[in-house]
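Researcher: Next entry in the queue.
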Amino acid sequence: MRSGKPVVEVGGTWTIFSVRGIREKAEKALQAAGAGKATTRSVDARAVERLDTAGALEILALVGGGPDAEVMTKDQAQADVFDVVRKNMCVAPPERRVNWFAHWLEEIGRNSLHFYTQAVNLCAFFGEILVVFVEACLQPKRFRINAVIQQMYEVWIRALVIVGILCFLIGVVIAYQGVEQLRQFGAETFTVEAVAIGMFRELGVLLTAIIVAGRSGSAFTAQIGTMQVNQEVDAMRTIGLNPIEWLVLPRITALVFAMPLLAFWGDMTGLLGGAVACTIYLDFTFVQFFDRLRDTVGVWHFYTGMIKAPVFGIVIATIGCFEGLQVRGSAESVGQLTTKSVVESIFCVIVLDAIFSIIFLLAGV
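Model: Structure for this entry, 365 residues:
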């Protein structure tokens, strides 16, 4: 007590590295001494050896200090620190209530702008790939055949099992559902056409594209993204190698060739699944199934699916490589952009499939 007024004496080191937990201990000491924070307006800091703004803020908060808080310091430097802290102390603004409709509109605007930016960047990336491809065509030695073959092994040979199994099962499902529904009208033999047209025109190539997007597209993003994190792509640019030519072009080329082969494999396994189901539920033989298929299903149903396949391959590979080159900073970014590439690839594949369906409908095929 000084002149009937409580004074808090502080000393030692008051810096950002030493003030953690000190306020709680000091408040307990003040309460034990009968001088609560609300009645304390003066502080004697002449014994303080080291002080920074964090320490000054703790001292002022400890004594309930504001602009009128009386602080005794040992020199002008400490007094200046307290003055700076007091001038910048303010009451926290009240929490702003967010209008849900305004927040919803803001999210829509932000996502729309992000979608537009992403689309522009992807188109620019595709244009850069076209330039590199034309240059490579003018100088065929720039094509890395070994890299293309290696990528084809990864995206084609190693994907045959999963594509075959899934398309086989889808063929079984279509045949079973077709038999159950068409039997009500005595038209269960049309199950053959349902399986064949569904697999040839849509499901075979679409399922294959979705599998490839989740398997190979994500692998492209993860591989290139890891190289980005390890600064291998920057090293390639430093020594004069174009990452588009060395990393992107072989992957796109491999997937463009592999997608029609995988789609054909998916169509055949889907038909096989449908034939197995029909032999069980309709007492068809395999010969009868494929004879009816040959007689009733036109070849253009097969071609429409094959036309889509290389386009889907270009889209999946381009998006996968593009997102891989967008990786920055850490392994967390690799995971986020890998997920993003799969979602974008599947979205674009479905949109393109709808566009192809409209075009083929207008063309009468």
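Model: The chain has two domains: 7-88, 131-363.
Researcher: Noted, moving on.
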